């Protein structure tokens, strides 16, 4: 029978519930347990696919094409839990399902209400997570938002009911809170934590473990005892979670305080200690790296660190493998359009990446950056939009078609070298309608891609509406472009990876390789791009 861990957050949002959940998942897996992971999000969007990543953070994509919260990326990077459409449910998707049932008449004349209909739907989503997967020992379910929010009430009420239905002995509640340090008092303050636990208790939930985010400080024994007393939690179950870098070292801090042991004891599970030696070695290797490789990420200005979370992490992973630290710096592409010198700006970098994006702002500047990388033999890596930009640049420069662009940016361009996917014609709704999820890709011989993957067939995840227009294929290939990856669909071939003949490392994919990268198994294209950038740096020195 599956046991459940529920992670809630208190005091503030962004308190790190995702990493706590993922880190606990890692510790449980290290003991040989099979886990499942899920996130419940209280916002009304049916999924985060329509939300602005510059505000909400990256949209993470699963193999089966779910557009999900970025915390699912942490789950995949820290654990081997299988994530899918079932792993993320929002208030919007839950109401959607209940309203559709009501329209079909399935409630037989009843008044449809938050309790029991919405809470029933929430519980059924939690049950569905493991319904088709055998042998899941522990399911970790993270509740988004902050305890005390109006929006999260139905979720917490559903957990209260769920706990009784499956038996309190089969549930463990982990509450993650902020314990702020007040400079003037010279003290960590536990009161907000007490209040947030009181708010949980009002709803009928009592945490079993409290993970305290304490910034740069650490709780002393007296403060732990105080939180334990006021919050009705055992002393050992107050976990210190000071800021730790790199994030992959965080679970090791939890391990040193026996977070997994405490949770398992609560769940009545007797499981031998786990082996974290490989994970520890990975963290040590990451910390030990001294050589710095500087990569320019050329794009629109990003105010939000999390907007490209998986890309940032994939570069960390590639750095571990190459024993170097990747310093990824955002370079605003719009400045090039305003006359800032491209060569002067980009010459201090060892590699250039253009990442995913939507809309026409900053596009011309990105094209200039690709031209610089191509002409100066600087390692270039394009991801999704970054591939489309590379194609546009080559069409303009190598084929002499200066107006070439994507129909996303100019629907009337005479040279639509990137155009709407045929399956997208007639699609009117924005939510969940892109080409999403994993597709098969065949790799050509003697290419960078083939060398990176060491295999002739790969599966990678997508999220786009536009594609390479095959009307330009022959001409571009005759001018030096190489198609190294293609998706064959009936008699149509989609270009999935392009390269450039004679360039040391120029590779761009229509898919998003970042979603499958893990700290112990860097994504092959990221890994080889960083290796090429390191070599470029050495050659320049
Ligand atoms: N805007 C482009 C498209 O829809 C690229 C999308 C992306 O980079 N994810 O095809």
Q: Could you write a compact summary of the structure shown?
A:
The protein has 541 residues and is of the alpha/beta class. The protein has 19 helices and 23 strands.
Would you write up a description of this structure?
The chain is an alpha/beta fold and 541 residues long. It has two domains: 3-281, Rossmann fold (3-Layer(aba) Sandwich); 290-540, Rossmann fold (3-Layer(aba) Sandwich), CATH 3.40.50.880. It is 37% helix and 23% strand. Strands 13-12-14-15-23-22-21-18-19 form a nine-stranded mixed sheet, with helices on both faces. A hairpin with a 2-residue loop joins strand 21 and strand 22. The longest helix has 18 residues, at 114-131. The N and C termini lie far apart (60 Å). The site of glutamine has 10 residues, from strand 19.
Task: List its salient traits.
Rossmann fold; single chain; nine-stranded mixed sheet; binds glutamine; alpha/beta; 37% helix; 541 residues; seven-stranded parallel sheet; globular
Average pLDDT for all residues: 95
**Main sheet attributes: strand count, strand direction, barrel closure:** 9 strands, mixed
> End-to-end span in angstroms?
60 Å
What is the overall number of helices?
19
Fill in the CATH topology of the largest domain: Rossmann fold
Which molecules other than protein and nucleic acid are bound? glutamine
Structural class: alpha/beta
Count of DSSP strands: 23
- Uncertain segments: none
Please identify the top-level CATH class of the largest domain: Alpha Beta
- The fraction of residues in strands falls at 15-25%
Name of the CATH homologous superfamily of the largest domain: P-loop containing nucleotide triphosphate hydrolases
Indicate the CATH architecture of the largest domain.
3-Layer(aba) Sandwich
Helix percentage range: 25-40%
Radius of gyration: 25 Å
| Overall 3D form | globular
How many domain regions?
2
**Numbering strands along the chain, what is their spatial order in the largest sheet?**
13-12-14-15-23-22-21-18-19
């Amino acid at each position: 029978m599956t046991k459940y861990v529920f992670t809630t957050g208190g005091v503030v949002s962004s308190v790190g519930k995702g990493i706590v959940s993922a880190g606990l998942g890692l510790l449980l897996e290290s003991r040989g347990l099979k886990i499942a992971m899920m996130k419940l999000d209280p916002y009304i969007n049916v999924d985060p696919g329509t939300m602005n990543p510059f505000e909400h953070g990256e949209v993470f994509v699963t193999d089966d094409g779910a557009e999900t919260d970025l915390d699912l990326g942490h789950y995949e990077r820290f654990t081997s839990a299988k994530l899918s459409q079932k792993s993320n449910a929002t208030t919007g998707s839950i109401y959607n399902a209940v309203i559709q049932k009501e329209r079909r008449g399935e409630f037989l004349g009843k008044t449809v209400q938050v309790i029991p209909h919405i809470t029933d739907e929430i519980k059924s989503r939690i049950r569905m997570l493991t319904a088709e997967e055998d042998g899941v020992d522990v399911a970790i379910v993270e509740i988004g938002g902050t305890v005390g929010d109006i929006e999260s009430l139905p979720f917490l009420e559903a957990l209260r009911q769920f706990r009784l239905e499956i038996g309190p002995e089969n549930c463990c509640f982990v509450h993650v809170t902020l314990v702020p340090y007040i400079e003037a008092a010279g003290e960590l303050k536990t009161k907000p934590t007490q209040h947030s636990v009181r708010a949980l208790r009002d709803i009928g939930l009592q945490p079993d473990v409290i993970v305290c985010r304490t910034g740069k400080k650490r709780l002393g024994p007296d403060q732990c005892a105080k939180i334990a007393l006021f919050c009705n939690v055992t002393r050992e179950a107050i976990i210190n979670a000071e800021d730790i870098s790199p994030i992959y070292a965080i679970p090791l801090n939890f391990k040193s305080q026996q977070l997994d042991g405490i949770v398992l004891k609560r769940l009545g599970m007797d499981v031998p200690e786990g082996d974290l030696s490989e994970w520890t070695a990975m963290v040590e290797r990451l910390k030990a790296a001294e050589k710095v490789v500087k990569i320019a990420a050329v794009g629109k200005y990003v105010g939000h660190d999390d907007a490209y979370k998986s890309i940032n992490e994939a570069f960390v992973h590639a750095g571990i493998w190459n024993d170097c630290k990747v310093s990824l710096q955002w370079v605003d592409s719009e400045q090039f359009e305003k006359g800032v010198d491209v060569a002067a700006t980009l010459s201090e970098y060892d590699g250039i990446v253009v990442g995913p994006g939507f809309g026409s702002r900053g596009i011309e500047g990105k094209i200039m950056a690709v031209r610089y990388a191509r002409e100066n033999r600087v390692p270039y890596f394009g991801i999704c939009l970054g591939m489309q930009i590379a194609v546009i640049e080559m069409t303009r420069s190598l084929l002499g078609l200066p107006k070439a662009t994507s129909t996303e940016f100019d629907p009337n361009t005479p040279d639509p070298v990137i155009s709407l996917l045929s399956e997208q014609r007639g699609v009117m709704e924005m939510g969940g309608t892109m080409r999403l999820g994993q597709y098969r890709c065949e790799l050509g011989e003697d290419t960078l891609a083939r060398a990176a993957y060491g295999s002739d067939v790969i599966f990678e995840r997508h999220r786009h509406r536009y594609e390479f227009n095959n009307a330009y294929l022959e001409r571009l290939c005759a001018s030096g472009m190489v198609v190294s990856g293609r998706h064959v669909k009936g008699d149509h071939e989609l270009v999935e990876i392009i390269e450039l003949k004679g360039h040391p490392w120029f590779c761009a994919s229509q898919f998003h390789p970042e979603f499958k990268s893990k700290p112990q198994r860097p994504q092959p294209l990221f890994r080889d791009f960083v290796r090429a950038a390191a070599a470029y740096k050495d050659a320049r020195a």
